[in-house]
Design a protein that fits this description.
This protein is an alpha+beta fold and 123 residues long. The chain has one domain: Ribosomal Protein S5, domain 2 (2-Layer Sandwich). Helix content is 41%, strand content 20%.
Length: 123
């Protein structure tokens, strides 16, 4: 059976309650060009949930913010199966310039490796 490389509605972080819990109780680390917040997912609905944000102070134009978020989501969609534990994850893009896809893809891969290490040591 082929792997599904999708980012469905149930995999997106949409709940305000979960988002508030993530930022208040979750763990965080920085990995250039991201700041990553994560917490163990306690719901049984899905394996992990994902969100991404870009600051409007850094990118004034909405088209640039949307482009950066689109690149991060695409890199996540293709590499999320490498994540081994149930997490709620939020990526904040902190870079100062609009990224290239290859840079984002590599950074997301490194972030997933670090998430695997951190989640395995905390359990």
């Amino acid at each position: 059976m082929a792997k599904k490389f999708t980012l469905g509605k149930n995999e997106r972080l949409k709940s305000k309650k979960q988002t508030d819990q993530l930022f208040s109780e979750g763990k965080k680390f920085s990995l250039t060009p991201f700041r990553i917040f994560f917490i163990t997912n306690t719901t049984e609905s899905t394996s992990h949930q994902f969100g991404v944000g870009v600051s409007s102070k850094i990118f004034k134009r909405a088209t640039d913010r949307n482009r950066a978020k689109r690149l991060v989501r695409e890199a996540w969609r293709l590499q999320k199966q490498l994540l081994q534990s149930k997490l709620i994850i939020f990526f904040i893009y902190t870079g100062k310039e609009l990224p290239e896809y290859n840079q984002v893809f590599d950074a997301v891969g490194k972030a997933i490796d670090k998430l695997n290490k951190l989640s395995s040591t905390s359990q």
